């Protein structure tokens, strides 16, 4: 039982000595601020935006944090608590860099404590709640700072960072399985706790703001005025709908593969292929969203995901087409969150007072709702294996209702395309 749960499982400088701002705005500065110079004793220019050593080191560090922080047991809570964490770090920006260190330490302690668990409740509290809170504080500065380091290539930067999750999904399961089979879950958790600190700790130095001063910003009602815009409402509704079905294939594909006669290893390859494809999908979509309207990017993700689910998965009666589906779904559905920079950009145009980071946090919370709700929904959908023997191909395997639900959420998750057609976006 424990094995299964695990697997699913600087204070700012005096602002008077720095580049002067007429007023604080959460919107990242424009590319022209490359020419601004901090009037300190060294008279050093600000690091370049959209490139340069500092920007790419920052992004590389974020990539690793993305890869190692997100865990299945804690994912729902991490999505849902980001608006709160972002609000706290915006209010007290001097603690933003310290947040990464404190969050990492909390995560490592949670993993270490979970190794002493004697029941499921202990695991939920440590790996679920405590780890999630630590992970949110460790991860949030990556999002808060990325808008400072990237402007015209922001979507690409987000895509590269989010590709870290896919890469981790390719490599870490094999490492964890070997550790579990060799040393058991207690030693595995302790080894992973130490490894997480060693792998991530040195990189925290590079997760830093581009601007040396970040004024405190108390959130007010006007900062959330974007929620009342039709642009955000439609895009957020579609975001939640897409999330309701997005996570289901990676949960059920291995067990579905076993109904086709696959061994445990061959069944696990379905998730590996999904993660491999999502690495490329995130980067490609991130690059495209910098150039195209966000609904065009969502349309690409929607069409690819919907066809993949209804046609490829729905008619899979052997492993080869199922593997093809995993690649298609990873490439298109796995890249859906890489459209978020485009959503943030469009919502910001409709609401000048909107903080892009809070738009992101609300999108993450919406995805968290889908993540949490999809578990109970999926259990209801496959209870008693409906349609088994009464429908053709994969639809009659007992997973037919799950396939249809996943396809419909992928389809309606792209409804923002229609919203743009009728002028609501």
The helix content is 55-70%
User: Helix-strand pattern, N to C?
Assistant: HHHHHHHHHHHHHHH
Task: Determine the strand fraction and express it as a percent band.
Answer: under 5%
Query: Outline, from the CA principal axes?
Result: globular
The computed structural class is mainly alpha
Overall pLDDT confidence: 88
Total strands: the figure is: 0
Major sheet characteristics: none
Write down the Rg: 22 Å
Count of separate DSSP helical elements: 15
Low-confidence stretches: 1-41
N→C terminal distance: 47 Å
Written description of the protein model:
This protein is an all-alpha fold and 425 residues long. It is built from 15 helices and no strands. It has helices at 2-7, 53-69, 75-91, 96-114, 120-149, 154-200, 230-246, 248-259, 264-289, 294-313, 319-332, 340-350, 356-382, 400-412, 416-421. Helix 3 packs antiparallel against helix 13 and helix 6 packs across helix 9. It starts with a helix and ends with a helix. Mean pLDDT is 88; it is low at 1-41.
Short characterization:
The chain is mainly alpha-helical and about 425 residues long. It has helices spanning about 1-5, 55-70, 75-90, 95-115, 120-150, 155-200, 230-245, 250-260, 265-290, 295-315, 320-330, 340-350, 355-380, 400-410, 415-420.
Blueprint (SSEs and pairs):
Elements: H1 2-7, H2 53-69, H3 75-91, H4 96-114, H5 120-149, H6 154-200, H7 230-246, H8 248-259, H9 264-289, H10 294-313, H11 319-332, H12 340-350, H13 356-382, H14 400-412, H15 416-421
């Amino acid at each position: 039982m424990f094995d299964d749960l695990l697997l699913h499982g600087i204070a700012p400088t005096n602002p008077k000595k720095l580049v002067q701002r007429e007023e604080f705005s959460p919107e990242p500065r424009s590319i022209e601020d490359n020419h601004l110079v901090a009037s300190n004793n060294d008279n050093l220019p600000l690091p370049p935006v959209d490139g340069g050593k500092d920007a790419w080191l920052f992004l590389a560090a974020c990539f690793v944090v993305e890869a190692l922080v997100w865990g299945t047991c804690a994912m729902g809570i991490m999505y849902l608590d980001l608006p709160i964490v972002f609000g706290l770090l915006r209010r007290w920006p001097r603690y933003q860099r310290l947040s990464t260190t404190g969050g990492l330490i909390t995560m490592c302690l949670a993993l270490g404590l979970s190794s002493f668990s004697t029941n499921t409740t202990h695991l939920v509290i440590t790996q679920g709640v405590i780890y999630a809170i630590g992970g949110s504080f460790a991860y949030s500065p990556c999002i808060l700072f990325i808008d400072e380091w990237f402007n015209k290539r922001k979507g690409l930067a987000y895509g590269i960072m989010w590709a870290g999750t896919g890469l981790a999904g390719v490599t870490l399961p094999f490492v964890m399985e070997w550790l579990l089979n060799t040393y058991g879950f207690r030693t595995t958790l302790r080894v992973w706790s130490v490894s997480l600190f060693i792998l991530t700790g040195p990189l925290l130095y590079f997760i830093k703001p581009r601007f040396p001063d970040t004024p405190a910003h108390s959130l007010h009602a006007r900062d959330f005025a974007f929620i009342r815009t039709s642009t955000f409402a439609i895009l957020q509704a579609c975001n939640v709908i897409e999330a309701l079905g997005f996570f289901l294939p990676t949960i059920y594909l291995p067990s579905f593969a076993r109904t086709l006669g696959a061994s445990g290893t061959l069944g696990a390859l379905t998730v590996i292929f999904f993660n491999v494809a999502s690495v490329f999908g995130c980067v490609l979509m991130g690059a495209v969203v910098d150039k195209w309207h966000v609904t065009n990017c969502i349309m690409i993700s929607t069409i690819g995901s919907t066809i993949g689910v209804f046609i490829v998965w729905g008619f899979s009666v052997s492993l080869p087409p199922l593997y093809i589906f995993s690649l298609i779904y990873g490439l298109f559905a796995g890249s859906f969150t890489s459209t978020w920079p485009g959503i943030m950009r469009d919502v910001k145009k409709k609401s000048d007072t909107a903080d892009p980071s809070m738009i992101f946090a609300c999108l993450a919370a919406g995805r968290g709702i889908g993540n949490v709700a999809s578990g109970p929904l999926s259990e209801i959908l496959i209870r008693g294996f409906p349609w088994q023997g009464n429908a053709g191909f994969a639809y009659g395997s007992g997973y037919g209702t799950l396939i249809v639900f996943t396809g419909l959420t992928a389809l309606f998750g792209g409804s923002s395309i229609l919203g743009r057609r009728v002028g609501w976006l």
